[in-house]
Design goal:
alpha/beta; Rossmann fold; 2 domains; three-stranded antiparallel sheet; 12 helices; 45% helix; CheR_N_sf; Chemotaxis_MeTrfase_CheR; protein-glutamate O-methyltransferase
Length: 281
């Protein structure tokens, strides 16, 4: 498992307090970090140690116990957040080609997309923009299209449902798209319009413990898998395979690659953009 060397570098006292922090995360914050790499968890804890000016795990553990508001900040730091719309524009261009291909095909009556580990909603809403634009372009107003966006963090899901974003998070979107799909609340904030929200359904889902969603045409799980150890990654890849219809697409983050059984099951559609396809039987 990655990160073992990091914990081995700690003194026995520091190792003990690191483990106590992990127990606190599990029992108090109700976040199961046992599936994450130690190195990742340690890096995230150190972000909060720096912010609270704690120089050791012992000091931070004591700070955590005595400052209730720190719990929320640590939980937030442990949760991976996508920070902007259409980040990695090249992959979104490929997604646009796939979606447009479906929309212009009159035989396609419904489209089902799963945004797994959707965080605060930038990804599913970003995909919804592509869908909406394609439906308008090919005059498919009645096409049945749904994006199911899932995450393990209920607070972040509530934030995603509201759909309020900072202006800087929209920097990759053309001005006409912003005007069409967002309401300007003030100089700093924009809110997603209901015309876009209607495509996206947010729900709680644990990638590790819960069974996969079914009958999906596309699964996006970008920059989430890297935080799990290899065995868990392989199990999740197989769940995605099960979730997809034949011919469906799996899209991973730039630093993520398929391995294990899933590598044999999927065919590579676009290696550079980490897009894989479930073969048509």
């Amino acid at each position: 498992m990655g990160g073992v060397n990091d914990t081995e570098k700690l003194t026995p006292i520091e190792q003990m307090y690191f483990k106590r922090i992990l127990n606190h995360i599990k029992n108090v914050l109700k976040i199961d970090v046992t599936q994450y790499k130690d190195s990742y968890v340690m890096r995230r804890i150190k972000v909060r140690m720096k912010a609270t000016k704690c120089s050791s795990f012992k000091e931070y553990y004591e700070y955590l116990k005595s400052h209730e508001d720190e719990n929320e900040k640590l939980a937030e730091t442990l949760t991976v957040n996508v920070t902007e719309f259409w980040r990695d524009i090249t992959v979104y261009r490929e997604i646009q080609k796939i979606i447009e291909g479906w929309v212009k095909d009159r035989k396609v009556r419904k489209i089902r997309i799963w945004s797994a580990g959707c965080s605060s909603g930038e990804e599913p809403y970003g995909i919804a923009i592509i869908l909406s634009e394609a439906m308008e372009k090919y005059k498919r107003k009645l096409l049945n299209a749904v994006i199911t966006a899932t995450d393990i963090d209920k607070e972040i899901l509530a934030k995603a449902r509201k759909g309020v974003y900072q202006a800087k998070q929209l920097k990759n979107l053309p001005p006409e798209i912003i005007e069409k799909y967002f309401i300007k609340l003030n100089e700093e904030e924009y809110m997603v319009k209901n015309t876009l929200k209607k495509f996206v359904k947010f729900q709680f889902h644990d990638l590790i413990k819960d069974p996969p969603l079914k009958n999906m045409d596309m699964v996006l799980c970008r920059n989430v898998i890297i935080y799990f150890d290899k065995k868990i990654q392989e199990e999740i890849f197989l769940k995605f395979y099960e979730a997809l219809n034949p011919g469906g697409f799996l899209i991973l983050g730039k630093t993520e690659i398929l391995h294990g059984e899933a590598k044999k099951l999927f065919k590579t559609y676009n290696a550079r953009e980490r897009i894989y396809q479930k073969p048509i039987e």
